[in-house]
Design a protein that fits this description.
Layout lengths: L27 E4 L1 H12 L3 E4 L3 E20 L2 E18 L2 E16 L10 E6 L5 H10 L1 H19 L13 E3 L2 E3 L12 H11 L7 E10 L3 H9 L1 H8 L4 E2 L6 E4 L4 E9 L3 E8 L8 E9 L4 E11 L3 H20 L7
Antiparallel strand pairs: 1-3, 2-3, 3-4, 4-5, 5-6, 7-8, 9-15, 10-11, 11-12, 12-13, 13-14, 14-15
Helix pairs in contact: 1-3, 5-6
Length: 347
């Protein structure tokens, strides 16, 4: 076993709560099957689907939920496996025949990570009620498929939120906070981003909206011991961004989509996303004058034994250049390397 400060950092057992598997560089796995079954039941049981003038349909029970869900981590990459065959029992009352129950099943036979929620099949059958249930079945088949698919999307989102981030563990010096089963440290406050933040805030406020702002351009280059795909994922996959920022984030990963990091202290929107090659953002500190954004361009280039990220940021208020540089180094690059082991040599 390597001593502290020696050897490959991915394999050192640091002074940390679990004392093993630093940054989960080894394969680690969590079984999410039990949690998933309860979550699926809570999402569907009791759900009401109503068509005015026709019927009110209530999903009474998830009578079948066969399958499994696993969450794996390898070298900082989160992998979700789930495969479910779901059957739900429903009962309907038609408005013109309120005393007669019409019963049937809704089945989802192919819920897995191989299909997007909008691609899953939803089949509907009637088991009681005879021909009176035909129009109810047609209503469920045509108009309620999207509702069912939306609930499936809620399950997938909850699965990733519940099980992803605590597979990537904190390193030495990082506090371990248990909240909603997610291991996170408190997000950096505005003051923690730089020792000069107070002065900078005052300077920004003195500028005022509508005043001319003297701006500068920042150029930084950083190398990571990982692939271009690894670093692109670290910057765009929500669970990985949560891991290295150690706080909740908002990411809408489409052109024009918004993002917020570090409790809203950094925000902006995506202007261009080219997987494994380039990310372009409108980017601002919360303390900058309202409406003022810089433009951040992250060019990602795969090298023979590493990946180079070249950052160009234009429109940075000149009084805030040093804080911005320090923020990229401390809260992005260094944190990514510590969290995912991207500062160590590839093997």
């Amino acid at each position: 076993m390597a001593k502290w400060g020696e050897g490959d950092p991915r394999w050192i057992v640091e002074e940390r709560p679990d004392a093993t598997n630093v940054n989960n560089w080894h394969w680690s796995e969590k079984n999410a099957s039990g949690w998933s079954k309860e979550k699926i039941k809570s999402l569907f049981e009791g759900m009401v689907l109503e068509e005015p003038g026709l019927a009110k349909v209530t999903i009474k029970e998830v009578s079948k939920c066969d399958g499994e869900a696993m969450v794996n981590n390898r070298k900082g990459k989160l992998i979700f496996f789930y495969e479910w065959d779901i059957k739900m029992d429903w009962v309907a009352k038609k408005e013109d025949e309120p005393k007669k129950d019409i019963k049937g099943h809704i089945q989802i036979p192919n819920l897995s990570e191989e299909n997007e929620p909008c691609e899953i099949d939803v089949s509907v059958s009637v088991t009681a009620g005879g021909s009176a249930g035909d129009d109810v079945k047609e209503f469920l088949r045509k108009k309620c498929e999207k509702v069912i698919q939306s609930k499936v999307a809620d399950y997938i989102t909850a699965l990733k939120r519940e099980y992803a981030t605590d597979l990537i563990l904190p390193t030495k010096g990082q506090a371990v906070t248990k909240q909603s089963k997610t291991i996170l440290s408190p997000p950096p406050s505005e003051n923690s981003l730089s020792a000069n933040v107070t002065n900078t805030t005052n300077n920004m406020q003195k500028m005022g909206l509508g005043c001319k702002i003297d701006t500068s351009q920042i150029t930084l280059t950083e190398r990571f011991k990982c692939t271009a795909d690894d670093i692109y994922r670290a910057l765009t996959v929500r669970e990985m961004v949560v891991a290295f920022t150690r706080g909740d984030v908002k990411l809408d990963l489409v052109k024009g989509g918004k993002f917020e990091l570090f409790g809203g202290n950094i925000s902006g929107e995506y202007e261009n996303l080219e997987p494994n090659k380039q990310i372009v953002q409108k980017w601002r500190f919360k303390t900058w004058p309202s409406g003022h954004y810089s433009t951040v361009t992250l060019d990602i280039q795969q090298k023979e034994d590493s990946t180079e990220v070249r950052l160009t940021q234009s429109g940075v208020p000149s009084s805030d250049v040093d804080r911005t540089k320090e923020g990229w180094k401390n809260y992005y690059w260094d944190s990514i390397k510590r969290t995912f082991g991207f500062g160590a040599m590839l093997i």
